[in-house]
Specification:
By secondary structure, the protein is α+β, with helices and mostly antiparallel strands. The chain is about 30% helix and about 15% strand. It has eight helices and seven strands; from the N terminus they run H-E-H-H-H-H-H-H-E-E-E-E-E-E-H. The protein has helices at about 10-25, 60-70, 85-95, 100-110, 120-125, 130-140, 140-155, 250-255; strands spanning about 45-50, 165-170, 175-185, 185-190, 200, 205-215, 220.
Amino acid sequence: MFRSITSSSSRIARLAAAAAFVFATVGSIGPAAAGDASTAVRLFGTAERANSDISAFPKWTAVLARYEQERALENRPCAGANCALQHWAQFVAGLKGQNRLRQLEAVNEYVNRTPFQPDSSRYGMADYWATPREFFGRGGDCEDYAFAKYLSLRKLGWSADELRIAVVMHHQRREIHAVLVAYHNGTAYVLDNLLGRVADHGALSHYQPFYSINEHGWYHHTGYSPGARVAAARSNPSGTGNVLTSRRTMSPAARSYAGNPDESTASLFTR
């Protein structure tokens, strides 16, 4: 587990080594397929190799399976005081047919309203991937925000190949973090619980990706170099310029996230 790792450089080295080990163990199928929406995008300026075997990520496969088991609950009448799951499903349904960039902004803003809660306080463990039923009812941490956004967009017709959850090193905060990446119009947009607005990946030079994953496969990222990043990022979906981390763009979730020690130590590789 990363809990015992105190040095930022040690965190990076161990996570990068773990990703490389898993990749070497299960093998490679080469770069993203030609039909993949991410083909022309170097996420956060990195090179990537794809692998269709996601069995090496049991927490990811487990949360996908649990969600399928719970999916029918979204359409059941609300019972009791907690109707957050039904409200989420209704919210997503209301976005159908809208502009895709508007969908990104709306989903990011809605999911980020959910209070941040570390896994240690909710589940008594350093890392647990929550389903929407668990997340909207009890709060969650970075991968839970990313997963709820992933499912929201899947419900809206986005394909799995257009979406990935990326595990990154946040160099400004010196923490391991997870975000949702949505590929659209030849670029990658980042939906982050630390940001109040959607950002083009080229505007976030402090994110070093280790791997990204969806239902169809996972991608090992290498060659990160802040100095070689995209010189000019696209504007954010609202057309008000690139979005960078600041107090003005910080989401409600970010304020409760700040200073939490568990977020930087959670292992996303082990059970």
